[in-house]
Specification:
Rossmann fold; 8 strands; about 15% strand; about 40% helix; 6-stranded parallel sheet; globular; about 260 residues
């Protein structure tokens, strides 16, 4: 039932790029680098950035509801108000997303990784396909993510309003929101049989579930000074994988590349 419902949602809001798990162009053992989007690839949270198009009072009102209602409800209400009350169209939303600054050095390290024949990149994010697609297209790097983009599907409706739908509907995982369990995505990638090793790069609490699914031969790359890094004192002993911490893309490249080419 889950797979059918997700297929129906995706047919209504098609992603501008593939979801991954396509046939590999290179035989032999492969490594997948799965990367979060907000505060990992881009410096700012994309949902908060788009909410800045609202008047301050409305933005704060909706932000106060995030702990209770969640991020997907937050961005849905932001987009509804932008379109309905302020006549802000999807092009203006896309322009705001395209203006987001990359984490220093991240564009370079992603391009470097994508050049390695035995490696694929993918994105695993609780953002959405419209935001991520706009940003990747702005830098002409959609082609780097041969492993696909796993995120909430989004589309522009006939009215011009941008609609974001849940990636899934789940109640089994308490670490993740109901619309997306990143751990289940990692399980899907592991069980696909395509990859000998997984590397996960993230910064937030919702990445904890994903890295807890990694095996001893896998690697978690945790951004230092952010939410996930702060959780390691309490949860570090629960991880089977090796862990490295990084501040920006330059440091990530310096620490990660030797682990891949070794």
């Amino acid at each position: 039932m889950f797979a059918i419902s997700r297929s129906l949602r995706l047919s209504r809001c098609l992603s501008p790029f593939g979801r991954g798990l396509s046939a590999s162009s290179s035989p032999g053992p492969r490594t997948l680098v799965a990367i979060d989007f907000d505060r990992t690839i881009v410096e700012q949270d994309s949902y908060l950035a788009v909410s800045q198009l609202l008047p301050t009072s409305q933005r704060k009102e909706l932000q106060d509801q995030i702990p209770k209602c969640g991020w997907l409800s937050f961005i849905s209400q932001v987009l509804q108000r932008l379109h309905g009350e302020h006549k802000v169209n999807s092009a203006s939303v896309g322009k705001r997303v395209r203006s987001l600054t990359a984490v220093p050095g991240m564009l370079r390290v992603m391009r470097q990784l994508a050049r390695i024949p035995e490696l694929e990149l993918c994105i695993v994010s609780d953002a959405n396909s419209f935001f991520i697609g706009e940003w990747l297209q702005a830098y002409a790097i959609e082609c780097l993510f041969a492993g696909g983009v796993f995120t909430n599907p989004a589309c522009v409706q006939a009215s011009g309003e941008l609609l974001v739908l849940p990636y899934q509907e789940q109640t089994d995982c308490d670490l993740c929101p109901s619309n997306m369990c990143k751990g289940s995505v990692m399980d899907e990638l592991t069980c696909s049989g395509r990859y000998e090793r997984l590397i996960y790069v993230g910064d937030s609490c919702n990445d904890l579930c994903a890295i807890k699914r990694l095996r001893q031969k896998d690697v978690a790359c945790i951004r230092r000074g952010f939410e996930l890094h702060g959780k390691m004192t309490a949860h570090g002993q629960e991880l089977a994988c090796s862990v490295l911490t990084w501040r920006d893309g330059h440091e990530l490249e310096e620490l990660l590349m030797p682990k891949i080419v070794a």
